[in-house]
Amino acid sequence: MLKSRTFLKKTRAGGVMKIVREHYLRDDIGCGAPGCAACGGAHEGPALEPQPQDPASSLCPRPHYLLPDTNVLLHQIVSAWRPETWASVASSLRLPGSLETYVEQEQGENANDRNDRAIRVAAKWYNEHLKNISAENQLQVIFITNDRKNKEKAVEEGIPAFTCEEYVKSLTANPELIDRLACLSDERNEIESGKVIFSEHLPLSKLQQGIKSGTYLQGTFRASRENYLEATVWIHGDTEENKEIIIQGLKHLNRAVHEDIVAVELFPKSQWVAPSSVVLHDEGLNEDDVEKEEEREQMLKTAVSEKMLKPTGRVVGIIKRNWRPYCGMLSKSGIKESRRHLFTPADKRIPRIRIETRQASTLEGRRIIVAIDGWPRNSRYPNGHFVKNLGDVGEKETETEVLLLEHDVPHQPFSQAVLSFLPKMPWSITEKDMKNREDLRHLCVCSVDPPGCTDIDDALHCRELENGNLEVGVHIADVSHFIRPGNALDQESARRGTTVYLCEKRIDMVPELLSSNLCSLRSNVDRLAFSCIWEMNRNAEILKTRFTKSVINSKALTLSSPEVRFHMDSETHDPIDLQTKELRETNSMVEEFMLLANISVAKRIHEEFSEHALLRKHPAPPPSNYEILVKAAKSKNLEIKTDTAKSLADSLDRAESPAFPYLNTLLRILTTRCMMQAVYFCSGMDNDFHHYGLASPIYTHFTSPIRRYADIIVHRLLAVAIGADCTYPELTDKHKLADICKNLNFRHKMAQYAQRASVAFHTQLFFKSKGIVSEEAYILFVRKNAIVVLIPKYGLEGTVFFEEKDKPKPGLTYDDEIPSLKVEDTVFHIFDKVKVKIMLDSSNLQHQKIRMSLVEPQ
């Protein structure tokens, strides 16, 4: 024992408690080097390589291990080295808490200096210790630090020490690693002009004071996909006022990047603006040409009615950066032999990034990953460094990898630790499995699914009772029986949150043995289920509801119309036909009963766990969201009422035009765009449970546990409520449940975006083979300089621009009230029928896109 401290503490009851704090140092931590006689078998866990396989270094010709300091580990290790290049130093080198390497903080020494000294002591100890193991091989530990003072002290103490840059440049056989070095500071990478573009970010202490006093507001920065000079900051907290603040103009955006947590200064109402209707994409102008940016900013300003103005402000500081590695392409510099190039991210909400690379010719035309290092005040774009080459642009494997990475979809194969918790095969239902479970194999239970469906979550039964009533049951795969709380399988399922369905690939939330076999309610095999069973009268009024774990043996009904968007060529897997989804009555029947089961389960778990139920809500949209819908309907002499969900549904049902049958579909599409996002939440952390879209006072997800982790939690809650399973601490911790909900909401949103991106890519492949196609379309939105159209045949949406590069600008008059756009002598209104030409524009490899141009009216 190193030392002990004893002190007395008074308890709430008035008593006195003696507390002893003892500090021990371990003497059983081995060095991690195989064959070390001094340490014997003390080291457990990861071991160092017997002979380090690092690339040959001109600075360190002897075999060596690397010991990085904390900052190098945080900022450089991921980007600059392939994982296999590092010896297992971070996890295996002797920690400065063991007997010989413990360092106590000295008087007047700050924590950072103490940590630096501790790492130097560990490095010195290792170099002495390794001499005893292998005198002939002369193994060394090289200390890597970017801290100048720390390096100087290490050299004084006889420790071989280099900066990250020095060491990487010494690896002559791997010159490409130099490109992966992160920029050390903004100051070292200032552009030569030195002209200040942005105002200085306020320090965190001032931001926190300002937020506390109400001078500044804290929120999440959301960049616009359509306009790179505009963003929205969603303010944190419960305040309804100024929930959403518009930021317009390069200087007011002030180097914030999408998803950063920022501090915002709210302007007085006299300086408020309306959201811009202009579509503006960054054309990669000259970095010094900020005046041209200011010219483009003038396009954002327009005369609008006062009610269109929104709270407006500017970013004054960054509270937390949420940078991540970004996928995209290199925009090679036009200057010969230049090492400085711009990187264009695939996500249009992310600014271009300035990087230095010697591999520009190799990386051109390929998808690469780049990380941001910093953003100086005098640079139009942030600085970054090259991380990884993903492959050729346009290749299906590469583009699928890009969209999965860009949407943060976990897609690595399941680890052995996860797979170890799967049931051993062959598996069968045992007597233990039947405990607290009803045998319903005598019932005629059916699943209704499209062809090729392997992850079958649900099945139904209906039978007449002796009293003349009907018994209807919804039977859901009992996934929670196989995934037990807290193990590696459960943790991985929770992390993934949802199965992601791409056009020709499925990223499972749970391993295939469960998703396509043991949990899938396949035809004519016994399966474990969780059943929700109602007794109803002939008017479908519910008389009784009960829940039970069960065993079923279902039959399969296959739908004749598959739920797919593309028909794939069976050999090449390229899309050969494109179609919109048909909704059959059978789909509708299944959907109705699934909704009913979800509502019934929500009521039951909330009765039992009023503070800990995982529920799903759909907030009512603010009235302003419906303005575009009301105006569009009014232009066709129709009235849409939006005061309640029911009045909205009723007015949509009435909004028919015999001369224009497709109008009702367009109105419903527009209505969907007005809606808020449905979210998961913990009942103890919210008061508003209402699901607006379903007009239900309470709702949850119970019916798809194979593909949604939320349903697994709901199954566990319901099982405890009916006495079919036992609880565990995390299940009744509302804060932990709220954290789970936060992750699930993020994963579901990202899965949705990934699916859309997959459809967009396969749409491009389809039109690449089709060539130029002309089709009828309807106008969904009018913008200041464009119209957004929907092509019913393909369910495809796109933008028709009226301003083209190097062509005379047409006269454009935009009317927000009607809404309409006059182009020369032709006026376009929402829902007008037009004819457009569709083609794949491959002129920009980074953003290949479907380009649409007007055919009729001319």
Poorly predicted regions: 79-94, 186-193, 560-565, 567-573
Please describe the biggest sheet, giving its number of strands, its sense, and whether it closes into a barrel.
Answer: 6 strands, mixed
Q: Helical proportion?
A: 25-40%
Terminal residue distance: 88 Å
Short structural description:
By secondary structure, the chain is α+β, with helices and mostly antiparallel strands. It has six domains: 43-180, Rossmann fold, CATH 3.40.50.1010; 196-285 and 306-322, OB fold (Dihydrolipoamide Acetyltransferase, E2P) (Beta Barrel); 323-388, OB fold (Dihydrolipoamide Acetyltransferase, E2P) (Beta Barrel); 416-552 and 587-618 and 679-754, no CATH class; 623-674, no CATH class; 771-856, Beta Barrel (OB fold (Dihydrolipoamide Acetyltransferase, E2P)), CATH 2.40.50.140.
Would you mind describing this structure in some detail?
- Helix content is 25%, strand content 25%.
- With 858 residues, the protein is of the alpha+beta class.
- It folds into 6 domains: 43-180, 5'-nuclease (Rossmann fold, 3-Layer(aba) Sandwich); 196-285 and 306-322, OB fold (Dihydrolipoamide Acetyltransferase, E2P) (Beta Barrel); 323-388, Beta Barrel (OB fold (Dihydrolipoamide Acetyltransferase, E2P)); 416-552 and 587-618 and 679-754, no CATH class; 623-674, no CATH class; 771-856, Nucleic acid-binding proteins (OB fold (Dihydrolipoamide Acetyltransferase, E2P)).
- The strands form 10 sheets. Strands 16, 17, 18, 19, 22 and 23 form a 6-stranded mixed beta sheet that branches.
- Mean pLDDT is 84; it is low at 79-94, 186-193, 560-565 and 567-573.
